[in-house]
Amino acid sequence: METTLAPTASRQHADTPTTARYARCIEVSKRIRWEIERDVIRDRRFDFGRKFMPDGLSKIEELAFLAPAEKRFLSHIQGRTYANMFALVERFIGAKILEMSEGHWLGDQVALEALVRMTDEELKHQELFRRLDRMAATGMPDGYEFKPQPNDVAAAVLSKSSWAVLGLTLDIELFSQAHYRSSIEPDAELSELWKDVFLFHWKEESQHAILDELEWRREHARLSAAEREQGVSDLVDLVGAVDGICAMQASADAAYFVANAGRSFTAAETAAIDDLMLKAYRWQYIVTGVREPRFADVIRELATPAQMDRIGAALAPILAHAG
Ligand SMILES: [Fe+2]
Ligand SMILES: [Fe+2]
Fold first, then answer.
1. How many CA atoms does the CB half-sphere of 113 hold within 13 Å?
2. Which ligand is nearest to the CA of 207?
3. How many angstroms does the Cα of residue 66 sit away from the middle of ligand 2?
4. CA 205 / ligand 1 centre spacing (Å)
5. What is the three-state SS of 105-164?
6. Cross-strand pairs, 190
7. Distance from the CA of 126 to the center of ligand 2, in angstroms?
8. Which of 20, 160, 166, 239 is deepest in the core (most CB within 10 A)?
C-alpha cells in the first residue's frame, strides 16, 4: 500500500554505519547460533579427573602446599562458581538490553532485532549455566553454595543509571572473551565439556560486546554532563558491589574447600586459601576486565580525566591486591 508517510524506519536507517554494525551482529549471530543439548552438551558429562578453571585465571598454583588432587578440586569449585557468576550477571544484562531496546521500538528495526537476539541468547546462556551447576554437583561433595541471589543483585544493579550498567556490561562481556582466548582455550588439562561450554559462550559474546558499546555510546550521547557524572558515581558503586560479591563467594568457596579437602590445614594455610580465593575472584571478575584495551579505550573516550581519576581511585585497592 502506497502512503505519503516518511520512509519506514528501517529504510531510513539502513545505510548508516551504526545500522551496518547492528546488521553485522545479526548476521554472525544467525550463523553461529547453537543449542544447549544438540551442540554443547551432546550427552557428555564433566571429567572430574581434569580441571575446570584454568591456571591462568584460578591462581591456584600460588598455593604451593596443595597436592595436585587438591588443586584440581579447588579448580572445580572455582569453575562451578564461574558458571554461576555468569548466570548471575546475565540476569541483569538481559533485562537491561531488553530495556535499551525500547529506544529502537519505533526506530531502527535492525538495531531492535540485534538486541532482541542478544536478550534471547542471554536467556539461553543462563539456562546453560544453571545446567552446568547441576552437572558439577554430581561430582562434588554436598555443601557448595552460590551465595548471591540473581534477582536481588539484578534489582540492585538495575536501580543504577543505564550509563553505569552498560559500562559494567561491556566490561564483563569483554573479559569473558579475553578469558577464553588467553586462558581457557590454551589450557590442555581442562575437562573437555567445561572448555567447550566457554567456547560456545565466547562465540555469542563477541557480538554482545559490540552491541554493548553501541548502546553505551548511544546512551552517553543522550545524557547531560550532570547525568554522566551520576553515571560515573554509579559505576564506582557497581565496582564496589561486584567486589562485595567476590568477597562473599570467595569466603564461601574457601570454607567449602577446607571442609571437604579431606585433611586439616594450619591456620596460616587456611588464611592463604582465603586470600587466594578473593585474589582470584577479583582478578577474574574485575581486574582482567578493566585491563582489556578495548574497554580502556571506550571509557577513556566517554569519561573526563577527573572522572577517570575517580574510577581509578575506586579500583586502586583491588588492583593493589589482585593486579
Ligand atoms: Fe552470555
Ligand atoms: Fe552476553
1. 17
2. 2
3. 35
4. 6
5. CCCCHHHHHHHHHHHHHHHHHHHHHHHHHHHHHCCCCCCCCCCCCHHHHHHHHHCCCHHH
6. 51
7. 10
8. 166
DSSP string, 80-103: HHHHHHHHHHHHHHHHHHHHHGGG
C-alpha to C-alpha distance for 293 and 301, rounded to whole angstroms:
12
The structure's pTM equals 0.94
Contact criterion met (CB below 8 Å) for 121 and 204: yes
| Cα 271 to ligand 1 centre (Å) | 33
What is the Cα–Cα distance from 277 to 65, expressed in whole angstroms?
15
Digit-coded pLDDT (tens) for 214-267: 999 999 999 999 999 999 999 999 999 999 999 999 999 999 999 999 999 999
Three-state DSSP at 314 gives helix
Q: Residues of 53-72 as b/e, b for ≥16 C-beta within 10 angstroms?
A: bbbebbbbeebeebeeebeb
Q: How far, in Å, from the CA of 49 to the mean position of ligand 1?
A: 27
- The rounded radius of gyration (Å) of the Cα atoms in the chain is 21
Q: Is 220 helix (H, G, I), strand (E, B) or coil?
A: helix
211 CA → ligand 2 middle, Å: 9
